[in-house]
Amino acid sequence: MTIPARTAVTNTGPRQPVRAIPVAIAAAQPADRVMTALATGDTGLTEAESARRAALFGPNAIRTHRARIGPVVARQLRSPLLLLLAVTAAVSFFLGERTDAVVIGVIVALSVGLGTVNEFRAEQAADALHERIRHRVVAVRDGRARSIDLPELVPGDIVELRPGELVPADLRLLFSTGLHCDESVLTGEAEPVRKSAEAVPEGSPIAELSSCALMGTVVATGTGRGVVIATGGDTEFGRIAVGLARKEPETEFQVGLRRFSMLLVRVAAALTIGIFAVNLVLHRPLLDALMFSLAIAVGISPQLLPAVVSTSLAAGSRLLAQRGVLVKRLVCIEDLGDIEVLFTDKTGTLTEGRIEFMRTVAADSSDGTETTTLGLVCTDGSIEQGALVGGDALDTALWAAPLPQRAAAGRYSRLATLPFDHRRRMVSVLVESPAGERVLITKGAPEAVLACCEHVPESAARALDDEFAAGHRVVAVATRSAVGTTALTTAEETGLRLAGFLVFLDPPKSTAGAAITRLTTLGIAVKVITGDHPGVAAQVCERLGLRVEGTLSGADIDRLTDPELAGKLSTTTIFARIDPEQKARIVRAQRSLGVDVAFLGDGVNDALALHAADVGISVDAATDVAKDAADVVLLEKDLQVLADGVTQGRRVFANTMKYVLMGTSSNFGNMFSAAGASAFLPFLPMLPSQILLNNLLYDSSQLAIPTDTVDEEQLARPSRWDIALIRRFMLVFGPISSVFDFATFGIMIWVFHAGESLFHTGWFVESLATQTLVLFVIRTRRTPFFRSRPSVVLLTAALAAVGIGALLPVTPLAAALGFEPLPAGFFAALLAMILVYLALAEAAKRWFFHAPGPVPAVRDRRTDHRLQRRAARFAAGTRPAPGTYA
């Protein structure tokens, strides 16, 4: 899915005054020459110039999309079912059956119209959701840095790059600090590539263009600034992606629908061939036999199943959007309902996310003033006019505190930076102190920093343990003299002296405890994956009432094989000090046990795990790479909001299954009755046009199913497609329906001595009434109406369909449809049959769902369609790029 309501424009116009510069050429040119060619400068473009270039080059998007009525209608007309109806209407018309042809034509028009309206509304809902998911980028215009929508970038814009961000276009770097980009989407190489503003020889391969940052790649570490040299389809990524197939592999929900459709095709084929053969043996007219057989094939098919599904998904997406849950693909709503294990980060989800600096604990007996100053200086963010720009959450909290040491920190001159990464879990800076000495300062996770120190005082170790036991976040600061050092590498981070610890507080979120309880009642196990210390995570979980069964650290996981890791998951709640690769490994291990897994994360280090999960969940304030990797975006990082999404996903599936179970059993019963009746009646039991009209009235009433209420027990656990259960349900409840059809046949022939027209009318009214009203029995496993009430909309729609069917025989349309008025005594018999039928269906339902059945098998993860979808996107290079949603 792509950004809606935009049209792609590429730079192919004649004699453009400003042209995008090919990446290979730009890389080989000095940065100032590239800026001159793009008619830009250090102050960036003016707003007027950027508007002119936007009109010239178009939006910075690989693919664009908006909901259009034409393609929706075309997809409706491609339906094999509608083709069958159209052929039937044409044959009827040319053979003189003009009334049948008109009726079938009206049915085709109504079916296409209903399907088009519902699918178009679903596309509009998806477009509205995508409009709410924005990618922003910091660009310099008119000399000021400002945040703009990513599609608004044009060649010549000056762009800021920060860790965790997607590179928004092809850029020629102007300067960088420790900048490394993950280019695996283009090159397949897992290791981030170092980037700098130095030119490379012309003709170098893309992987060696160290002076260019390419669209769709990810800023792994460091910062930088660059000038946009190409946007949209003119980028290196765009040239690969723009010509690729856009159809995504199916979700499990879609696979279930397809398998269900194949079941109906097989049943319809068997009935159609059998009925056609019987009619030929009985020497019925060939055309009548053919038309009746075709009508049977159409009648057993739930014609509006796609409309019911799209209506459910669209309604579900609107409700979720109101609750702050944006689903990037509508079919992923059902995936939400399948979640059995949720892996979540800690900060901002279980905690308030408002990190506050508490105090400094010096390693010696000092007051910690020096430690605080060193902590302020050691950051990979930028310090501009005494303020921090672009630091992480802990650095931001430290600089936000009213500390007198900020003035002293400003007197240090930073010479080099070794940015933070998730393997080292440290950041180091080379600075010149106010006294003119070169000093190396290192700051990071206590375990990592202490491992680089020559000596750790016992008192400092005890103080660290006390802070962890209290649930505080701790950052260690160490230093050493660096005389003669001019550049920083990881080899320099040795022989350090521990200066002390910076202590931060991130209190548990007040709503998280209730949310965890609610998720538990929904059958979802909540587990925590964090880069923090295990003691801190355990304290937070304990305060929130999340039972901690066990803890594994990143070091523990490294010592385990994949089968061993999978074996420990059932007794592990907290995974601490985990790096990005380990997060993805944990998720894959959990999925290998045959359960559906969701992962909630918002950082660049969460992208691998988001891709590995069945459902990737991020938040609107997350990094671009996290939002692109996710299937679901939360406008608020709150587990209560996620629980709403799970509930809605299960509601969508439950209502879809109501239609499937009821429609297949009733339609199968009716068609089975038609097949049996055609063997002994001297005429067709119902005209083809009447069968189709019956099916249309019935299906139209079922469009209200998405509004129906769902019983709590149906929401308590995830449900999945079970084709075997659907088949058994059809074979049990279909014949029950046929019993009352045959009773109607007997009443019409032996009591009312009905001719062909009256017989058709009686069965039409009875079959429509029974198959529509039985929904109120099948829609719940409880006692209908008393312990489970349907929605008012569904009740009204069902009664309206039955009423229309009963009134048609007395309207002016009756003769054209082949109907005639029914005697009053028929309706008394009909009422009695309906009551007995519903009672028998209720008894059969209780037996069916309580009788022992086959044990469901664990799903085979080798055919995991979501994993195939992810793999296909990476292999083809169609991983979502800025300006697109896939």
Automatic annotation (TrEMBL):
It is found in: Cell inner membrane. The chain crosses the membrane at residues 77-95, 101-120, 263-283, 289-309, 729-752, 758-778, 790-810, 822-840. It is a multi-pass membrane protein. It comes from the Bacteria. SMART domains: Cation_ATPase_N. It catalyses: ATP + H2O = ADP + phosphate + H(+); Mg(2+)(out) + ATP + H2O = Mg(2+)(in) + ADP + phosphate + H(+). Signal peptide: none annotated. Its EC number is 7.2.2.14. Residues 25-97 form the Cation-transporting P-type ATPase N-terminal domain. Keywords: ATP-binding, Cell inner membrane, Cell membrane, Magnesium, Membrane, Nucleotide-binding, Phosphoprotein, Translocase, Transmembrane, Transmembrane helix. NCBIfam families: ATPase-IIIB_Mg, ATPase_P-type. Mediates magnesium influx to the cytosol. Belongs to the cation transport ATPase (P-type) (TC 3.A.3) family. Type IIIB subfamily. This is Magnesium-transporting ATPase, P-type 1. It comes from Nocardia tengchongensis.
